[in-house]
Write a structure and sequence with these properties.
Structural class: mainly alpha
Bound molecules: zinc ion
Zinc finger (dksA C4-type): 80-104
Distance between the termini: 43 Å
Number of helices: 4
CATH architecture: Up-down Bundle
InterPro entries: Znf_DskA_TraR (IPR000962)
Region (Disordered): 1-22
Helix content: 55-70%
Oligomer: single chain
Strand content: under 5%
Organism: Streptomyces thermolineatus
Radius of gyration: 17 Å
Domain Zinc finger DksA/TraR C4-type: 75-108
């Protein structure tokens, strides 16, 4: 193995590189943490039902991000948890913590 940079591989089913995935996950985490911070600092967390609900959903997303990072470390990132097919990179860019592909997601709803 001489290739240190595997980011630009031309595999037919273009898998997302770990490098990209890490960046996307970090971006999502930072965005959520910023939102959480803003809610905490507004002092409305316990007063406002909507804020409370939002806090819960932000924490849920942060857990999903943790989960995605564990899968990334395990080398399973970008593979649907339902059908084991690769998840489209476009989907992962928008939703980097997605656990499954679009068609499985639709089935789940
Ligand atoms: Zn699937």
């Amino acid at each position: 193995m001489t290739s240190l940079d595997t980011e630009r591989s031309d595999s037919p089913h273009e898998r997302v590189s770990a490098h990209d995935a890490r960046q996307w996950l970090a971006r999502e985490r930072n965005a959520r943490l910023t939102q959480l911070d803003a809610i905490e600092q507004s002092g409305q967390k316990d007063a406002d039902e909507l804020m409370a609900a939002q806090t819960v959903s932000l924490r849920r997303v942060l857990k999903e991000i943790d989960h995605a990072e564990q899968r990334l470390e395990a080398g399973k990132y970008g593979v649907c948890e339902e059908c084991a097919r690769p998840v489209a990179p476009e989907r992962l860019e928008i939703l980097p913590y997605a656990r499954c592909c679009v068609s499985c997601q639709k089935k789940a709803v």
